[in-house]
């Protein structure tokens, strides 16, 4: 992965450097690569990494959106670790370009990958900033 647009001592990275980055399963096996990111246009936060998976020479591959919070960057591999298996990807809720407008679809995706939906994270953060405590502290 090229890091020409990011300094190695900082955590910021250009989206062009994320695209094409390898994604590994929990056993360290390569399961795909990041094709593109879905960014919330109001908050600017990355919500999904759309991973390309399968195919041969770019033919017959599929795209699978993974919740951004399901990925962890591994410096040693210079790739992302996903707590998902190849079978989970195959069994994921069907994806189309219209899926982004369907909150029920997003709920199914987060449930499938057992991740906290980003809208719940936003509510919790808003509660913390208003009260100065976490919801579990109250």
Summarize the structure in words.
This protein is α+β, with helices and mostly antiparallel strands and 138 residues long. The protein has one domain: PRC-barrel domain (SH3 type barrels), CATH 2.30.30. The protein contains four helices and six strands. It has helices at 15-18, 86-90, 103-113, 118-131; strands at 22-24, 30-39, 46-53, 62-67, 71-74, 79-82. The protein has a six-stranded mixed sheet. Strand 1 and strand 2 form a beta hairpin. The longest helix is centred in the C-terminal third of the chain and has 14 residues, at 118-131. The protein is globular, with a radius of gyration of 16 Å. The chain starts with 14 loop residues before the first helix and ends in a 7-residue tail after the last helix.
Question: What is the topological layout?
Answer:
Elements: H1 15-18, E1 22-24, E2 30-39, E3 46-53, E4 62-67, E5 71-74, E6 79-82, H2 86-90, H3 103-113, H4 118-131
Parallel strand pairs: 1-6
Antiparallel strand pairs: 1-2, 2-3, 3-4, 5-6
């Amino acid at each position: 992965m090229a890091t020409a647009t990011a300094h190695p001592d900082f955590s910021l990275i250009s989206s062009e450097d994320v695209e094409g980055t390898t994604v590994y399963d929990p056993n360290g096996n390569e399961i795909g690569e990041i094709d593109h990111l879905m960014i919330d246009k109001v908050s600017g936060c990355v919500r999904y990494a759309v991973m390309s998976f399968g195919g041969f020479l770019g033919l017959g591959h599929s795209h699978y959106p993974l919740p951004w919070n399901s990925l962890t960057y591994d410096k040693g591999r210079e790739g992302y670790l996903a707590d998902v298996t190849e079978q989970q990807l195959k069994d994921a809720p069907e994806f189309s370009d219209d899926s982004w407008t369907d909150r029920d679809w997003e709920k199914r995706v987060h449930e499938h990958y057992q991740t906290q939906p980003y809208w719940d994270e936003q509510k919790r953060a808003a509660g913390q900033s208003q009260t100065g405590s976490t919801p579990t502290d109250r």
